Amino acid sequence: MKKILKTVLIIYLPFYTAAIILFQFQVISELVLVSAVYAGLLNIINFAAASAAFVWTLKKDNKKFLIFNLGGMGVRLFFLLSGIFILLNFLKIDFYAFILVFFVFYFIFLFVEVYNFHKTMESVKRIKNI
Q1: Quick one: which of 39, 69, 82, 117 has the fewest CB in 10 Å?
Q2: Under a CB-based contact definition with an 8 Å cutoff, are residues 58 and 1 in contact?
Q3: In the chain, what are the domain boundaries?
Q4: 69-121 tens-digit pLDDT
Q5: Burial level of 47, CB count in 10 A (0-12/13-18/19+)?
C-alpha cells in the first residue's frame, strides 16, 4: 500500500506544483485551479477504491476476487459518473479544465492500476509455484 501511495504522490505533486506556480503567476485562473483539484480528488478516490478492493480480495477465492474487482469496476464507474454530474451541475467550476484534467488522470491511473495489479499477481503466482 505504501508503494501505491508513493505512486500517487509522484504523479500528483509535479502536476499540482506546476498548477500552483501557474496560478501564482496568473497564467491560470482560480476557477481552473479549483476544477483541476476536484478532478484530481475524484480520481484519487477512484484509485483508492480500486486498490482497496484489490488488496482486500487478493487472498480470497477466485469467485470473490472477480466479483469485487470486475463488479467493482462497474460500481466505481457509476460513482464516478455521479460525481462528475454533481460537480458539473452544482459547483462553479470550469467545465473544460475539469474534463481535461479528469481524463488525463483517469487514464494515467488506469495504466498504473493495471500495471501494479499485474505485477502483484505475477509475484503471487511465483509464490504459489514455490
Answers
A1: 82
A2: no
A3: 29-129
A4: 888 899 999 999 999 999 999 999 999 999 999 999 999 999 988 888 888 88
A5: buried
pTM of the model: 0.85
Number of alpha helices (DSSP H) and beta strands (DSSP E) in the chain: 4, 0
Amino acid at 97: A
If we measure between CA atoms, which residue out of 90, 81, 103, 83 comes closest to residue 36?
Answer: 103
The helix/strand/coil state of 126 is helix
CA distance 115 to 109: 10
| Contact in structure between 105 and 43 (CB atoms under 8 Å) | yes
Q: Residue 101 class from Cβ within 10 Å (0-12 exposed, 13-18 middle, 19+ buried)?
A: buried
